[in-house]
Amino acid sequence: MPTGCAEQLTFWDLGKQQVTVDFQGGEVVCDAGLLPVRLLDKELGVLATVAERLPDPRAQPLVTHTREALLVQEVYQILAGYPDGNDAQALRRDPLFQTLVDVSPDAEQALASGSTLNRFHHAYTRRQAELPPEERPVLGEVAAALSGRVRVLNAYLPELFIRTRRQPLRYVILDVDPSDDPAHGQQVLSFFHGYYEQHQYFPLFVFDGQTGFPLAAWLRPGTVHASCGAVEVLAPVVRALRAAWPDVVILVRGDSGLAVPAVYEFCEAEGLLYAFGYTSNDVLKARVAQAADDLETYYRFYQHREASVQRFEVIEDYQADSWSRPRRVVAKVEINRRGLNRRFVVTNLSGSGQGIYHGF
Length: 360
Known about the structure:
This protein is α+β, with helices and mostly antiparallel strands. It has helices spanning 34-44, 46-53, 67-79, 88-91, 95-100, 114-121, 126-129, 138-163, 230-244, 261-269, 282-287, 289-302, 353-359; strands at 8-11, 19-22, 171-178, 181-182, 191-193, 198-201, 204-208, 214-218, 249-254, 273-278, 308-318, 327-336, 339-347.
């Protein structure tokens, strides 16, 4: 039933500026914080450069949405919390997302549909779908296309890092980080991992240790060893950094999952400084037994003054059975109300044990 309300209401007594309230609603958007992100993205040419390098199997004369438009649409959907390509069905006429893709806000100029976005994501075309099943090696083609795209992106990340530094760097810290990525259990190559007690993937990342800038990201099956592929991931990052800055000092950090001979030998052959967590064992415990006894005695007398005490020992000649030569191990021996705790780090850094453990 009509209420008789006016469609507009004007306030005349709010200073010099006339204020009019309109009850028509108009187009309302959220996630407007993506606009300054897109402005910076365009100034740096981040997604535009990536789009130029991504292979596109589509018949180009029939293309409506460019590679850059599809990539921008997908990336900003993810940033806004819409990770599924099918979310495009609800967002393709959203004025904000049209603005992000440089399309004038207009319901008649819709962005790519969910099916178009998903085909682009998987590098899969209608022509492939129309082939007879016996002539459609879809999984192999999609896997190869996705792997190729990941290689393009990983080649681009160090380049973008170098390009966006204000001046040449004297040193770079590479943090190598295997990370558990929970899955539902039905995805290809996702498996149950006993340590994490979940179905997962086990991707490997490399970050700049000072800024957190991503330098590499590789998806791996859920049950591989933490060090799987680490040398292959690090090698191109190191090459790119040294090509840009020949005198740069490169340091590598990682947890105990990276502490394997192949990684040590790669770092030593390439002249990289490193420090990796190292799993405790009976030999190392025996080497720091005297320090642990001394610390326990000290703590027994002074625990009313200190919540915990630490001591650092350096073992210069430790050699595991799988190692080709001895290496330096830094031990942190700590005791507190919970008891004795021993941690070990294998490294080729010189200097005091405490400085290495706490400083690096």
